[in-house]
Every structure is written in C-alpha cells, then in structure tokens.
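Internal tracking record. Fields below are filled automatically when a chain is submitted to the structure queue. Please do not edit lines marked as system-generated. If the sequence contains nonstandard residues, flag them in the REMARKS field before resubmitting.
Queue: standard
Priority: normal
Entity type: single polypeptide chain
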Amino acid sequence: MKIPPKIDTDHGRFRKIVKGHVRKNLKKYISRGELIGKVGKNRVRIPVSQLQLPRFQYGGKKSGGVGQGEGKEGDPLGPAPGQDGGGEAGDKPGEHDLEVDVSLEELAKILGEELELPKIEPKGKSKIYTEIYRYSGIRNVGPESLRHFKRTFKQALKRQIASGFYNPEKPVVIPMREDRRYRSWKVTNKPESNAVIIYMMDVSGSMGDEQKEMVRIESFWIDTWLRSQYDGIESRYIIHDAEAREVDRHTFFHTRESGGTMISSAYFLCKDIMEKDYPPDEWNIYPFHFSDGDNWSADDTQRCIKVLQEKILPACNQFGYGQVRSPYGSGKFIEDLQENFKDDDKLVTSRIDEREMIAQSIKDFLGKGR
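SYSTEM-GENERATED OUTPUT FOLLOWS
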C-alpha cells in the first residue's frame, strides 16, 4: 500500500521531532538507563514525554447532548454538572507520555553527534573476506536449476520469427535445446571488519547493585556505538573476585557480590580468550574492565601491569578501564594504571563516580576513534 504524500510528509516531520527530542534528552536517557529494558532486535523503544498526538475525545456516557440520551436544544455537550473527574482544579499541565521506536543505527548516530565521537578506523589487517556470489549475466550453458525461463522463451520466439515458423494466429512457442539460457555468476570478495568486546567486571564484596547498574548502562551504549562501526561483532563476559570465570550476559549483570579481589585473574583469562579465539590480524579487540579499584595486593597489581604490557595491549585496539565509586573500595588501581601507562594511548581510564558521569566516560573510551 502506497502512503499518500501528505501522510508521508507528516510522518517524516514527526520522526524529525522525535529525533530532536531524543538528542536534547540524550544525557538524561544515558544516566537513567531507561532504554536498556526496551531493546528489540534492531530497535529500541524510547519514552517521549510532552508530545501530544491529535485524537478524538468523547464525553462521558451520562453527559447531555443529542445522540447520548435525553437532551434538549442548547444543552451542553460536555460533562454534566458535578462530573468534574473526581479531582481538584489545578494549574499544572497533564503528562502525556508516548513511546516511539528508534533504530539502534539512528540511536548510535545521535550518540556520535552529541558526544562528538569520531568514526573508528579498523586497525591493520583486521579484515575478514567473505565470498559473495552475484548473478551478473546470461550464458548458453549451465545447470537446469539456474535456467532463465523468460530469456529462454524470448530466444525461442526470436528463432521462430527469424525462421518463419511463428504463426501469430496460433502463437505456440516451443524452446529447443539451443534456446536455453542460464544465469551466470561471479564471485567477489567482500571485506568485513569484525570486532569483539570483552567485558570484565569486579563482583567482589565491595561492588554493590548501583555500581553494577552503572556498568550495565555504560556497556549498552558502548555496544550500540561499536555495532554501528563494524559489520560483525561479538561480546564475551568475564566476572571476577579472587578468581575469574567466563559467563553469559545475564549472569554478568546479575551475579551477587562476594569475596575478595584479584584483578589479574580476569586479565589472564582475557588474554587466554584473545589468544585462542581472536587473532589480532583478523579481529578488532576491545577489552573493557570495570571495578572499584580495590585490588588485593601490590603484587597482583604488578601482575596486571605485566600482562597488559606484554600480551593484551599489543593485540587489542584499545583497553578501557572504568572505575566506579564504592563506599568500601580504596580506588587506587586507576592511579597505578595511569602512572604505568601514561605514554601509552591504547589504555584509556575513566572515573564513573555517579550516573551523571556515564556520558563523559563513554566519550573518554570512544573519543579516540580506535
């Protein structure tokens, strides 16, 4: 069904208004995390307030008016006297909430514009070539499954006309073997830039629900941006206290906090996953670690620094460390990283003391275009 031009114009104008509203309130959406539970396959549902759509409004069943029961000429069509809706008069406007669908691609574009994020340039040889078969021509031989019936019929018709056997009074076209035509194809190599995000999170006793919620919000926006930059992307999840293990996404965000903290356990597991499944010449690798910075010992911190220097940083595009504020954590780990990697721009650190700092943290991580 073709949309009338007037409706199509109005719909485009409405989408423009919605995008402007999302752009204006983006940082609010980021800090509240209200979009995360409304994600579909390729779209997200956004609550938009104060956008009123025109619609018919009917009076109550017991109100006067012709067609609604007994009534006389001149009777009001509004509510009957005394039917005031059960509330007191006020001077505040009512709330009109509306939920609209926005594609994740559009959301990523708005995020990039508002936070001024540069496009990511895939590193080095990080291209995987996929063979694409395209039907681009016609030939005289081929499998019957690729026979082009229309072209075969046309060729038979042309032959019969040219030989004088075609009778327009009794149009019968019978293709012969030499009339058959088949679709032909050629193989092209399409480059695809693939990426993997490896999320690591501290789930020790000093990490509470609010800290994990901030991590969950930030990872959603990191995912949204990186998926807009790469053809294919995978996500892996590691949780750790004194030990590390790989888990699924749901477990990653819902594990109860307990135990001590040895950050090196997560970094060594991250290294093993990278070496086993993601060759650096074929993959763009993005490890992100979130913690309150309360590591078990200085010796373990040195183990972290060593594995980062020797194994993880040389193989990845960028390593992001985000430190959330906890009432129990010391928060010293971020200072150790900044001191040891002050000349290495592959390692990016960010403080996330409260939800309002998430937007700036996203810009810290993604603002280098790596």
